[in-house]
Amino acid sequence: MGVTEQVAQAVAHAPMIALLGNPNCGKTALFNRLTGSRQKVANYAGVTIERKEGHFASPQGHPYRVLDLPGAYSLSAHTPDEAITRDVVGGLRANDGSPDVIVCVVDATNLRLNLRLVLEIQRLGLPMILCLNMVDVAKKRGIEIDTAKLARELHMTVVETVAVQSGGEKGLLRALDEMWPVVPVKPQPLAAIDAVSVEDTQREVRRILAAVTKNYHNTDELSEKIDNVVLHPVAGPVILAVLMFLIFQAVFTWAAVPMDMISAGVEGIGQLLSTHMAEGVLRSLLVEGIIGGVGSVLVFLPQILILFFFILILEDCGYLPRAAFLLDRLMGGVGLSGRAFIPLLSSFACAIPGVMAARTIQNPRDRLVTIMIAPLMTCSARLPVYALVIAAFIPEREVWGVSLQGLILFALYFAGIFSAMGVAWFMKRSTGSKAKQALMMELPSYHWPNLRNLAIGLWERAKIFLMRVGTVILTLMVLLWALSSFPGAPAGATHPPIYYSIAGMLGRALEVVFAPIGFGWEICIALVPGMAAREVAVGALGTVYALSQTGDELATSLTPVLASSWSLATALSLLAWYVFAPQCLSTLSVVRRETGDVKYAFMMAGYMFALAYAASFITYHVARTLGA
Ligand SMILES: Nc1nc2c(ncn2[C@@H]2O[C@H](COP(=O)(O)OP(=O)(O)OP(=O)(O)O)[C@@H](O)[C@H]2O)c(=O)[nH]1
Ligand SMILES: [Mg+2]
Questions:
Q1: Which of these, 134, 103, 127, 7, lies nearest to 63 by C-alpha position?
Q2: How many angstroms is it from 20 CA to the middle of ligand 2?
Q3: Near ion ligand 2, which residues have CB within 5 Å?
Q4: Between 20 and 30 A from 488 (CA), which of 190, 259, 379, 474?
């Protein structure tokens, strides 16, 4: 047996620790610290929505498996993500025994809220360790907690941890070693939890709090001061709007230099290959297929990273739930609660995590509506498409001192948001549900974004993007190049060869459907592979136009080619199309999984397609009438 197999065997039989606690108390940060993994950590409730497993060895060499779980306020689950936690702890999930040890993580600055869950979990009768996490913050605020006394009161080991500091997990590791060997215990049925009334539990919490804490207060003065401004009825929304606006400006202005560098590099390689290689199929595949296609997507990496830089900062400093709070009124107007805000905001990255994050929504109907509108939020895969068309058609001018291109991008994002609100309003109205759930959301204390988290988050994003470029996009580009190159042009052809290829035929067939909204056959070719991933459309346009070039002039840079081949009306129509079109098969399949019904995936595709066509049609014809 090799070493790795030995390790694998030891891990398979290792005791299972479950990290349990209220939302936003630092479970995932602790999980990452223990296992060295990089699960997402952010400063709002409901970041983790799935169970994640990892393993580690204690300082004395004992192996452990560890589970990170969605945060829960109580084990009588109200939301689908809380249900995951309850089922894992109660051993109700197939393939999963109940955990051997429970590590209850509590936010030391918020014991009053957190202790209730600790008392509930204790009734399961499993071996437990209490992690007083965030003791660094508690100390700074002058909160004193007598850990030894707390341990006596609760009859369990209590350790202090700081999950965001290296070495901050040592106390927990020591406690685990002292507990070794772990004797398996069967948990009490979940019903045991409900045996004690909530009032009795609360009374017990108050008694313990009074006995073990000094100077306890769960308010943070600085956060309150900031909130007085940020949540102000007038100043609040203005700040939010300015913030969003600045982000889109930055996406264009900051990205210019690195984008130029990447595209110069890509172009250079293209030139090099075309001068040093003999003309032929291989050169065409490399230059037009791969460099023209993949290169044109790669250029957008800086913009995506800049967008994420801001999203990650907002997530980590604690602003997100405030934004949800500010938008609650607006969302209430369409029958959604502010709680839908976070899934919707996640959808700016990608609709898939957004649809999954809707698990944190309690009301099933609200959850469904949120899922249905999530893909209308502008995901990062649309950014390359928008940026490309904007760069080709919108002059680099300043209007009222701001970049016009950034302004248009801002408008496109808003088009997505407003139409989502419209669709939500329509869906809520047509299902006849008017009741609006009050927004119950904790506002965490602000803190400075953790630089390490930020770096990891950006790195993960870059990796995801480059992986996509290197796998899905590359494969599709090669495939598209092949379909666009064969069969070659017949003798006496008047069009470029791609016109006669398989892809060309397909594009021309689709043109019948899309001509009324201004899309020529070249665009139609790009729409099809764009279904796999939206940004592929950019690569596809790169390849299609590279292959459509006649003569020696080889343009690896797509922007000027588009500017000369399309009318402004077509460009605007394509932008409108991308705001709405259901151009992403993976989202549809996640919708089916999360709703448990394929019907909803079809409904989504149907309504989005109809909206896209209508919006493009109107845009195209209005623009034409205005002479664009
Ligand atoms: N200062 C300080 N911050 C911490 C500590 N532990 C976690 N944090 C921060 O607290 C926030 C929440 O951490 P997470 O690990 O995402 O919390 P979680 O319990 O997994 O939250 P959910 O997944 O939403 O249930 C993040 O912003 C962390 O950086 C700590 O010990 N000290
Ligand atoms: Mg978490």
A1: 7
A2: 10
A3: 27-28, 47-48
A4: 474
CA atoms within 13 A on the CB side of 565: 19
DSSP 22: S
Instruction: Tokens 């309850």: give the residue.
Output: 86
465 CA → ligand 1 middle, Å: 26
Residue in 107, 90, 91 with CA at minimum distance from that of residue 22? 107
User: Which protein residue has the closest C-alpha to ligand 1 atom 23?
Assistant: 48
Pocket of ligand 1 (CB under 6 A): 21, 23-29, 41-43, 45-48, 70-71, 133-134, 136-137, 162-164, 316, 450
The token pair at 495 is 């069009």
Q: Look at residue 550 in the predicted model and tell me its pLDDT.
A: 58
Residue 461 vs residues 305, 348, 381, 527, 603: alpha-carbon distances, Å: 7, 13, 12, 25, 30
Q: What is d(CA 478, CA 394) in angstroms, rounded to the nearest whole number?
A: 31
- Ligand 2 centroid from CA 519, angstroms: 45
> Which of 33, 34, 41 has most ligand 1 atoms within 8 Å of its beta carbon, as the pocket-test mutant?
41
Q: What is the DSSP letter of 163?
A: T
> Left, alpha or beta for 432 (phi > 0: left; psi -120 to 50: alpha)?
left
**Residue 535, C-beta contacts closer than 8 angstroms, at least 6 positions apart:** 297, 300, 381, 382, 383, 384, 385, 468, 473
pLDDT of residue 1: 58
- What 8-state DSSP symbol labels residue 217? -
The pLDDT value given to residue 84: 87
Its CATH architecture, for the domain 3-218, is 3-Layer(aba) Sandwich (3.40)
- For ligand 2, the distance from its centroid to the CA atom of residue 73, given in whole angstroms, is 13
Amino acid at residue number 455: A
Determine the residue of 68, 85, 113, 164 to mutate for testing ligand 1's pocket, defined as the one with the most ligand atoms within 8 A of the Cβ atom: 164
- 511-525 per-position pLDDT tens digit: 999 999 999 988 998
Q: Which residue stretches of the chain have pLDDT < 50?
A: 552, 554
Q: What is the DSSP letter of 533?
A: -
Q: What is the SS3 assignment for 106?
A: strand
Judged by phi (left if over 0) then psi (alpha if -120 to 50, else beta), residue 129 lies in: beta
Question: Measured in angstroms, how far is the CA atom of residue 314 from the centroid of ligand 2?
Answer: 17
Counting ligands in written order, the one closest to the CA of 171 is: 1
Residue 451 exposure: Cα atoms within 13 Å on the Cβ side? 0
**Secondary structure of 23-39 in HEC code, one letter for each residue:** CCCCHHHHHHHHHCCCC
pTM assigned to the model? 0.82
